[in-house]
Write a structure and sequence with these properties.
single chain; mainly alpha; globular
């Protein structure tokens, strides 16, 4: 058989496999959206959930999900950025650095339920933080940190050494070369890493069941004092997120419209992740053009 024929056959097989994966993904997304979108309304997005009667919404759960996402990224991103810069630009190539990278890979492969149990034993029980937003955010930081660190390190390492040499040849210090030359070039990859980690955080349920809790106390959205118990900004209150709410409805939901609420909440979760990805990519591209003065 000729080499060109073999190449066409191999290429056709690859395209066929990719098409199967894309079709499966489109089928799952389409199924969720078709079942859930008809149940989405402004009242559904803003009203509180109901435990025993029909007509409940997901307002508190949706707010808790975004609040936990923002808090987790505020904790994990600076740590991951510092670790990524150190591993990429400053860490010597020895067995200690290799051990750190292996540890990061091991942590990134841990099941989320293990991270949740670890967070429950350490933060909820040992540190006596209880089922709270801060317990969930710290647990998700452990869950999110390895992937985010690895993504940032890979993005920085992908920058050609020629740019490092150019910065140093102009008299810039090592730190200024990293912050003014390497970091802007690696920004799109870093933004992509944030997107991937944010999607994991927003859709996570297992780790939050044991840390943030499965209840959603009444929230007073007119009280923005973070020290008050009913304030939405209080980090020490329990917070049932959207993903946990979907799991809870499908396992023990007894409201008459449980299927409709679950379908609508699932569609909102998928749409929110898609919108966040698109918005993050747009912001990343704008930041890259602004920092590098590109068009």
């Amino acid at each position: 058989m000729k080499a060109k024929t073999i190449d066409r056959i191999a290429t056709g097989i690859i395209y066929a496999l990719v098409s199967v994966v894309v079709l499966i993904l489109l089928f799952l997304l389409g199924l969720i959206l078709i079942k859930g979108v008809p149940h989405i309304s402004w009242r559904f997005l803003t009203s509180p959930a109901q435990a025993f009667i029909a007509g409940g919404g997901i307002g508190d759960q949706l707010f808790n999900s975004f609040y936990l996402l923002i808090l987790t990224l505020l904790i994990s991103f600076p740590i991951a950025l510092g670790a990524g810069i150190y591993l990429s630009e400053y860490a010597p190539k020895n067995w200690v650095t290799n051990l750190v990278r292996i540890t990061i890979e091991v942590l990134s492969s841990l099941p989320s339920v293990v991270v949740g149990l670890f967070g429950f034993l350490l933060f909820v029980v040992q540190f006596k933080l209880g089922f709270s937003i801060i317990s969930g955010a710290i647990a998700l930081t452990f869950f999110n940190l390895p992937l985010l660190t690895r993504s940032i390190e890979n993005s920085l390492s992908a920058v050609p050494d020629l740019q490092r040499e150019a910065g140093l040849s102009l008299g810039l210090s090592k730190w200024k070369t990293v912050t003014r030359v390497i970091f802007p070039t690696a920004l799109p990859g870093i933004i992509t890493g944030i997107i991937l980690s944010a999607g994991r955080v927003f859709g996570e349920a297992a780790a939050l069941i044991f840390t943030a809790g499965q209840s959603a106390p009444a929230i007073n959205y007119s009280d923005w004092n973070p020290f008050n118990g009913t304030s939405p900004l209080n980090i020490f209150r329990p917070a049932e997120t959207l993903a946990v709410h979907i799991w809870k409805i499908n396992t023990e939901g007894i409201m008459p419209d449980a299927n409709q609420v679950s379908a609508g909440a699932s569609a909102v979760l998928v749409i929110a992740v898609l919108l966040f990805n698109l918005l993050a990519r747009f912001i990343g591209a704008r930041l890259y053009r602004k920092i590098t003065a590109g068009k």
